[in-house]
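step 4 of 6: structure.
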Amino acid sequence: MRVGVVVFPGSNCDHDTKRVFSEILGQDARFLWHKDADLQGCQAIVIPGGFAYGDYLRTGAIARFSPVMASVKAFAEKGGRVLGICNGFQILQEAGMLDGAMLRNKNVKFLSQRVHIKVEVTNTVATRGLKAGDVMGMPIAHGDGNLYLDDESLAKIEKERRVVFRYCDSQGQVTEEANVNGSRNGIAGICNAGRNVVALMPHPERASEPILGSDQGRKILEAFVGN
Amino acid sequence: MIQLRVLVSLKTSVFDPQGRTTLEALHGLGYKAITDLRQGKSFLLTFNGITEDEARKQAEEMAGKVLSNPVIESFKIERVA
């Protein structure tokens, strides 16, 4: 499958992400420069982590106006699969492709640590073939990952089963302590109504090879390029 | 020349972790009378060659579309010069 990894000025997980898709998963992965509106026939698009445009103004706020984003939006509206990781999540929210917004972490610190997340639903482009309740360990690295949704949007997203991942402990228990950034309902990842746009704050690409300390994140990227 | 200031802040219904941390620091310094602190951003926009009404209309658009995120933030606009 041809996988496009979008590169903004300030993206810094683009190479890691492309490497997993091409070297580990054997896909035709390529970079898509944010100034180019042409998606080069890619069948799956990843918005990787980093600090697009230095996160000036707000995380993801400027990146959403890049030419590539109009194409990504049109691609998603036709049902194309899109995955956002960390800063990619924030960009998709600013672009109006996913609900909510990210606040500063509840303890006001940049958090760079390992967390566990639990698969909540398997009918999305990034969790097909996984098991609900599967627990995976992988890193987070963000200052603004405290997912905010107002009460109404939160109820809606829960009712429509669009919470894809939740922070949990190593046993899969969703606890206040495991929810390190203070996200509402411990949400680590969500999808759109079409279930073809998924994003999460943790970094599956940094947990896709045993040498990195965990390869549990690979399952998400594998699912994303699966049939 | 018209100068408008756009003040963007988190909606009152949204928890402001930075504001809270700063508030606690001020309490620690002995400023006990302060009961709340909300942090925000200020943008000073300078316009030329248009009327105040037009400038305000454009500033409203910019604030709603770019300068603030309506999911979590609200804004107000004031004339500075």
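step 5 of 6: annotate
 - Chain B touches chain A at residues 10, 13-18, 21, 66-67, 69, 71-72 (CB under 8 Å).
 - Helices of chain B lie at 17-28, 52-67.
step 6 of 6: archive
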